[in-house]
Design brief:
By secondary structure, the chain is of the alpha/beta class. The protein is built from ten helices and eight strands. An eight-stranded mixed sheet has the order 1-2-4-3-5-6-7-8, sandwiched between helices. Helix 2 packs across helix 3 and helix 4 runs antiparallel to helix 5. The N and C termini lie far apart (about 40 Å).
Length: about 325
């Protein structure tokens, strides 16, 4: 453990699951030891860019006291395999990976889904998918809407007048990294960014240790940029999976009020995407699982308790 760290390394139990296109997905589990796993609610945590599952370590340690906690390395990150082609990072493959993990750890049961950053995008797309959402009891979103939210959001903001135009301009400025990620030079840029990433995370109040950020941050980031290239169209339209709106999965939106990448304004209107929708706010920046793990765990615990899982009637897709 690095000097200055006050928490112990998270003792995840790790195994592999076959995801979409046969890509091996590394799954990590915490809690539910000593035969108690069947008595505990299952929470599936999905990380974002450029992280691996260790971004959830501090949240997982808290939740594992009374939950069975599962986190997987998204394809291309951490210990998971990577697809052979860039299109292997398409959204439908990510949804299928989440389903495969959920069904492997809790077959026939509904699990509670939590997503941060790109994990939040994936989570929204999953609970909005007409088949996939039948496997989930609840969803908690942090720091990203579904991709399909962007176009109707722009229309609504244009109709608002000056205040809406300000929200659009504010988000546009904060999203300038997205077109940059589509450029080949971005891969080389991460070789310079990577060695400074740990110091950058510390400077924004995130708790770093020997496991996070990963020593493989450059490789994970370079592969992770394929998420943007495969799913966010610039030169050409990207094909996104079908959605059925609104979702009947209970959704809680945890808003990081000081997020420099995902503005509060971008999250306006998300209540229309879920039949059962709640929202809370946290005075925090983007990396809340590492800066405010106790608050994140408390929000998850409250949302899970309010939406107990039942046996899933859906069949595995």
């Amino acid at each position: 453990m690095s000097a200055g760290n006050s928490h112990e390394a998270t003792a995840w139990r790790t195994f592999q699951v076959a995801g979409a296109d046969g890509v091996e997905i590394a799954v990590h589990e915490l809690g539910g030891e000593n035969g108690s796993a069947t008595d505990l609610p299952v929470v599936l945590l999905v990380h974002g860019f450029p992280d691996d599952h260790h971004v959830w370590d501090l949240v997982a340690q808290d939740l594992a006291r009374d939950h069975r906690v599962v986190a997987h390395d998204v394809r291309g990150a951490g210990a998971s395999g990577e697809p052979d082609l860039p299109d292997g990072y398409r959204m439908m493959a990510l949804i299928e990976d989440i389903e495969a993990v959920a069904q492997s750890v809790a077959p026939g049961e509904k699990v509670h889904l939590v997503g941060h950053d790109w994990g939040s995008i994936q989570g929204w797309e999953t609970v909005l998918h007409p088949v996939a959402r039948g496997h989930f009891a609840s969803y908690l979103s942090i720091s990203a809407p579904p991709l399909q939210h962007v176009v109707p959001w722009r229309r609504a903001k244009l109709a608002e007048g000056p205040r809406g135009w300000f929200d659009m301009a504010n988000q546009l400025v904060r999203s300038t990294y997205i077109p940059a990620f589509h450029l080949p030079v971005a891969d080389k840029a991460w070789k310079n960014i990577g060695p400074r990433w740990r110091a950058q995370m510390k400077s924004v109040g995130a708790k770093v240790d020997d496991q996070w950020p990963s020593a493989n941050i450059v490789d994970d980031a370079v592969r992770g940029m394929e998420l943007y290239r495969a799913n966010i169209g610039l030169a050409r339209k990207r094909a996104l999976p079908p959605i059925s709106l609104p979702t009947d999965v209970a959704v809680h939106l945890l808003v990081a009020m000081d997020d420099p990448h995902v503005t509060v304004g971008l999250l306006d209107g998300l209540d229309a995407w879920a039949i059962k929708f709640t929202r809370s706010e946290l005075r925090a920046g983007h990396w809340v699982p590492r800066s405010h793990p106790e608050e994140v765990a408390a929000a998850i615990r409250t949302h899970v308790a309010a939406n107990p899982a039942e046996h899933s009637l859906a069949t595995t897709a």
